[in-house]
Design brief:
By secondary structure, the chain is an alpha/beta fold. Helices cover 34% and strands 19% of the residues. It folds into two domains: 28-223 and 316-380, 3-Layer(aba) Sandwich (Rossmann fold); 225-312, no CATH class. The chain contains 13 helices and nine strands.
């Protein structure tokens, strides 16, 4: 799902109702206007969702922002994202939208490019027009930071890049006299759902008073990384997402300094092919791709370094304070439904009373996206 935000312009909008986002150093480094889009133009951008057009209320302006954030290794870098601002409305809540998986070869689909047909251009722009200033981070590895490897499914850096973009968005609104209120909503699907969960947790841990979470609605994220690894390595049926799981392994091997040769994880000829092209085609059968020793170690929980990397990225077992709604297709063939079920049960077990589980009956990873968008919008609209 996506949202477009109108640019922050000087107008008769009320002065921002919040102080600068945090007492920390400013993160915003630059802004460029991408364009302004009328309600007529926005109304036709989501033809597959008939109700979407009825949400359009305001024209929007879209800006590309650049801002300071940190790499997984702790070095400062410049990242980018899009901010969408409804024109003629305010003070408005801010919605942080975390996008789904983008392979590096699809880099121009990242939010700051505002590419025709991207989710930020379509659904997210409609959500912005409904009355939200949208903060849409590119993440590391895209846009201004495209020279870096994207830390795929790495909770800490997805969260920090998204939080710093949210800070930059509020700084931008203050500079441009765009009226915003203190509310912060979080949405995202697939990798974006995982990033949304990571962002929610980080904001409550570090920014509880300066960037309080009003409500979040993550969709179809792989929150239980430890169980997901056992699912992948133990599967006997074909799994069509194994090329993206190779990306997860590559990310964790690098960030957690496991520094293993590809032959540790993969059988030939795939280890050699992946060495030449990290996104080379791989078989859908796990027992054809992964080495027997690696599979057995994960299933028996005897690979302590890898288990620690997985545990560091588990996001299912904590207690959120703000309302949180988990959306997930019950027949999801890329990210199994148990990820949301496990999170719901663990959070409720920790005493989180404002957590909801919204199964999408029979929905797979792709067919559930439209239902997620409408359900998530309905959920945050209550607040």
């Amino acid at each position: 799902m996506a949202l477009l935000a109108a640019p922050a312009c000087k107008s008769n909008a009320p002065e921002p109702t919040t102080a600068p986002p945090t007492a920390e150093a400013a993160v915003l480094t630059g802004s460029t206007l991408i364009g302004e889009y009328s309600t007529t133009a926005l109304a036709g951008r989501v033809p597959g969702v008939p109700l979407a057009g009825s949400l359009v209320r305001y024209p929007i302006r879209v800006y590309r922002l650049t801002y300071h954030t940190q790499t997984p290794e702790g070095a400062e870098t410049t990242a980018s994202g899009a901010v969408l601002v409804p024109v003629g409305a305010g003070p408005l809540p801010v919605l942080s939208y975390q996008h789904g998986t983008l392979e590096p070869r699809s880099e121009t689909q990242a939010p700051s490019y505002y590419a025709t047909g991207s989710d930020v251009w379509s659904v997210v722009s409609v959500l912005a027009s409904a009355g939200y200033v949208v903060s849409a981070p590119d993440y590391l590895g895209y846009g201004a930071s495209k020279a870096l490897p994207h830390p795929y499914e790495h909770a800490a850096s997805l969260a920090s890049a998204s939080a710093d973009m949210l800070r930059a968005t509020r700084e931008f609104c203050q500079q441009q006299n765009v009226g915003v209120n203190p509310k912060n909503f979080l949405l995202g699907y697939s990798e974006g759902g995982y990033a949304t969960m990571a962002l929610h947790k980080l904001l409550e841990e570090r920014y509880a008073t300066t960037l309080p979470v009003t409500a979040s609605a993550p969709g179809a994220g792989a929150y239980h990384k430890t169980a997901f690894a056992r699912y992948v390595l133990g599967a006997t049926q074909p799994l069509n997402f194994l090329s993206t799981y190779v990306w997860v392994l590559r990310t964790y091997d690098r960030i957690y300094r496991l520094n293993r040769p590809l032959s540790f994880y993969y059988q030939e000829p795939y280890a050699t092919r992946l060495q030449a092209d990290p996104f080379a085609a791989v078989p859908s059968q796990p027992n054809q791709l992964f080495t027997p020793a690696f599979r057995q170690a994960v299933l028996a929980n005897t690979d302590a370094p890898f288990a620690a990397a997985l545990a560091a990225n588990d996001l299912y077992d904590w207690r959120p304070r703000a309302p949180l709604a988990l959306f997930h297709g019950t027949a999801d063939d890329y990210v199994p439904f148990f990820n949301s079920q496990d999170a719901y049960e663990a959070m409720r077990g920790r005493g989180a009373t404002q957590v909801e589980l919204h199964p999408i009956p029979g929905g797979n990873h792709f067919s559930s996206a439209a239902a997620y968008t409408l359900g998530a919008y309905a959920f945050i609209s209550q607040y």
